[in-house]
Write a structure and sequence with these properties.
The chain is an alpha/beta fold and 291 residues long. The chain folds into two domains: 85 residues, Leucine Dehydrogenase, chain A, domain 1 (Rossmann fold, 3-Layer(aba) Sandwich); 126 residues, NAD(P)-binding Rossmann-like Domain (Rossmann fold), CATH 3.40.50.720. It is built from ten helices and eleven strands. Helix 7 links the parallel strand 5 and strand 6. Helix 2 crosses helix 10, helix 6 crosses helix 7 and helix 6 packs across helix 10. The longest helix has 20 residues. The chain is globular. It starts with 12 loop residues before the first strand and ends with a helix. The mean pLDDT is 97. It binds nicotinamide-adenine-dinucleotide (NAD). Nicotinamide-adenine-dinucleotide binds next to helix 10.
């Protein structure tokens, strides 16, 4: 099924993450239904505490799992849970052969250290791709789960036919969740972009960006990227999320940038839904790894 191509008022291709997510979920559901060798593929979500956005994210991950033909299990602990209690809950899921993927919703409440919790995840069940072993596999170019948000950016580029080979890409942000894996994925063999990593100490962000064919903004600073950062025709993908008085906004000033860009993600409805789609892809891949 081809994606319908929509344009912004300024003529840029709208990289519609909602539409692509729906397409990927439908593809996964078809694959699951058509493969009788698959077990009942299960994604387990772990939520600690009562952070509202985290609860919304976990809820939509569970709903999309079911739409993709997977089953979901949910484990919830109170904000008062101890480090040992959280680790025990995750260890139980790690050992359970009926659970194929485990997602620990981050951030954990204050006082809890996520590192020892993530370390309990076997690499094949680490569908968020955040553990040291998954990261190590990504760096070494070995099979493993890739973090969902940067993978979602790659899917948007690929499925909308945006060439990365030999192109200049700038990634803004150097976190292990988004920026660093994004740099690795864009620069990997096959994607073959020449990648610049910009961050909070980059001296001149306009200068770093304005030659780029692809910009991935993951700083979490509302409206950081404006038309002056963007080369005419460039693809601009907005990962940042800031909660402001005007609602949720991205790192990209959509109005000014859509007038110069060749392609742009909306916010919301761009990279966010793609994160969920890639989580489902990883969960099915996890079940296949464990078959
Ligand atoms: P982070 O705070 O760990 O990293 C932010 C990065 O931005 C840092 O590396 C920092 O060096 C860089 N930065 C900060 N100010 C900058 C500036 N003025 N110029 C250039 N770089 C600057 O955050 P993160 O976990 O990587 O997430 C980044 C953003 O993406 C956040 O807003 C987060 O909410 C959002 N996010 C979105 C999704 C999604 O699905 N769309 C998923 C994960 C995170």
């Amino acid at each position: 099924m081809a994606l319908e191509i929509k344009h912004t008022a300024g003529g840029a291709i709208l990289l519609d993450g909602n539409a692509l997510r729906d397409q990927i979920i439908a593809e996964l559901a078809e694959e699951v239904a058509g493969d009788s060798s698959l077990p009942n593929v299960c994604l387990a979500t772990v939520l600690v505490g009562d952070d509202k956005p985290s609860r919304v994210y976990v809820g939509s991950k569970q709903r999309k799992a079911v739409e993709a033909g997977l089953s979901s299990r949910h484990v919830e602990l109170p904000a008062t849970a101890t480090q040992a209690e959280v680790e025990a809950a995750v260890a139980e899921l790690a050992e359970d052969p009926t659970v194929h993927g485990i997602l620990v919703q981050l951030p954990l409440p204050d006082g809890l250290d996520p590192e020892p919790v993530l370390d309990l995840l076997p690499p094949e069940k680490d569908v968020d791709g955040l553990t040291e072993r998954s990261m190590g596999r990504l760096v070494r170019g070995r099979d493993g789960h890739v973090p969902c948000t940067p993978q979602g950016v790659m899917e948007l580029l690929g499925r909308y036919g945006i060439e990365t080979k030999g192109k200049k890409a700038v990634v803004i942000g150097r976190s292990t969740l988004v920026g660093l894996p994004q740099v690795l994925l864009l620069g990997a063999k096959g994607a073959d972009a020449t990648v610049t990593l910009a961050h909070s100490r980059t001296a001149d962000l306009v200068e770093a960006c304005r030659d780029a064919d692809i910009i991935v903004a993951a700083a979490g600073i509302a409206g950081l990227i404006t038309a002056e950062h963007v080369k005419p025709g460039a693809a601009v993908l907005d990962v940042g999320i800031s909660r402001t008085a005007d609602g949720i906004v991205g790192d990209v000033d959509f109005e000014s940038v859509q007038a110069v860009a060749g392609a742009i993600t909306p916010m919301p409805g761009g990279t966010g839904p793609m994160t969920i789609a890639c989580l489902m892809q990883n969960t099915l891949a996890a079940a296949r790894m464990q078959q």
